[in-house]
Design brief:
It is a single chain. The chain has about 230 residues and is an alpha/beta fold. Helices cover about 25% and strands about 20% of the residues. The chain has one domain: 3-Layer(aba) Sandwich (Rossmann fold), CATH 3.40.50. The protein is built from six helices and ten strands; from the N terminus they run βαβαββαβαβββαβαβ.
Length: about 230
């Protein structure tokens, strides 16, 4: 399993630009890309659409999503559409999670759709508790070895989630973390400077045969030993 290449950008905007360049290059090559939700990647998605407006050679998957309607403000599908795919001249094949289904059924359907797929790039975020995608600390989904997708209750009251699991994420040719903000500094330290642990799920997501890259702004990197 690869080690992590740590890149400390000049600021959050520079971090977004670096990720946008990676996304644009991956889209132009084609292949299967897994994208994350949350507010952090939005500027990267918008800039990636400007840098490469034709994503028609690519397939885009969601690393996770909440089981809410696609127009719900909490929907990762909505986020990816509004900040990326709706801005493109050539749209990718966008594979949505069937959020109208019960959690286990939605997970099984997405797992079946992913059969045989090897991700060329998996973009990951990082929560303050160390979670990534919807893989939460010490969650049962972390023990999944046979399935690419699992159901996860998540942290939202009464809102279930569906998430990619470690086997499919670690099989990605390139894993890229984008993390900004001082509120993530402790999680960054635990994820990238301490031994892997289920208590910090992001520490377990590493490309098995390819590259793992963490692009951070100075605030997020402030508690790393080398800073």
């Amino acid at each position: 399993m690869s080690t992590v290449e740590l890149v400390v950008a000049q600021d959050a905007a520079d971090a977004a630009r670096r990720v946008a360049e990676l996304l644009a290059a991956a889209a132009s090559r084609g292949g299967d890309l897994a994208l994350s939700g949350g507010s952090t990647p939005r500027p990267a998605y918008e800039l990636a659409a400007e840098l490469e407006p034709d994503w028609s050679a690519a397939d885009v998957w969601l690393g996770d999503d909440r089981l809410v309607p696609p127009d719900d403000e909490r929907s990762n599908l909505r986020l990816v559409r509004e900040h990326l795919t709706d801005r493109l001249r050539g749209a990718p094949r966008l594979h949505a999670i069937e959020t109208s289904l019960p959690a286990e059924d939605a997970a099984a359907a997405y797992d079946a759709a992913l059969e045989g797929v090897v991700l060329s790039l998996a973009l990951q975020g990082l929560g303050g508790d160390g979670h990534t995608a919807s893989l939460f600390p010490n969650a049962p989904a972390l023990e999944s070895t046979a399935r690419a997708v699992a159901a996860e209750p998540g942290l939202d009251p009464r809102v279930d989630r569906v998430t990619m699991t470690l086997p499919v994420l670690c099989a990605a040719e390139e894993v890229v973390f984008l993390v900004t903000g001082a509120d993530k500094a402790d999680a960054v330290r635990r994820a990238f400077a301490e031994p892997p642990s289920p208590a910090t799920p992001a520490s377990l997501v590493r490309s098995r045969d390819g590259r793992t890259l963490a692009i951070l702004d100075p605030a997020a990197a402030s508690l790393l030993p080398s800073t």
